[in-house]
Amino acid sequence: MSTKSTDESSRRVTATRGDYGDPATRARILEAAWRLVEEGAEASMGAVARRAGVSRQAVYLHVGDRTGLLVALVDHMDRSLGLEERGREVFAAPSAVDGIERLLGMLAVAHEGIAPVARILEAARRTDPDAEAAWADRMGRRRAGSRHLVERLAAEGGLAADWDVESAAALLYAFTLPAMWDALVVEQGWTAEQYRDRLTAALKSALVRGA
Hints:
By secondary structure, this protein is an all-alpha fold. The chain has helices spanning about 5-15, 25-40, 45-50, 55-65, 65-80, 85-90, 95-125, 130-155, 165-175, 180-185, 190-205.
């Protein structure tokens, strides 16, 4: 994809995050989409419209196209699950180690709720430039957060001696990707608590000096 097309896609995806139309109707549309995804049904524009009791035109008005629906749904789920506040708590932790613990606690909640939508968005990004831009934006924020925590760990003197910031940030990012949740929880049957506790222990063992 060219830089120009990527920039254009990013602008279109950003535009889908606006709050168009009546907020109550928008919320009803997003809740309808959420329920459909939870049920394993296809969250098509028509199906969402029927579940929400609105016209297809209303769905398009409030969220744009189907990529806009997915992006808006992920943001709506973030707010509904309290993930925005928990994200702020990660970076307000008294230490980097506490921040890593809070991050895994937040992700245990986030992945359990958002994983089905994330899978749809990840699949859509392979053929849809807007979905690709949305996915890249979300993963970019994850990478930045991982690096921030590792830089803080290093500044506090807690980064294990055999790790540099770049490599440690890459490991933290990789361990916390949705694919890791799918591999351990969906495929291997771990509970959300096991995901949280075992990955926290593994990351601290690998990255924290003296752990």
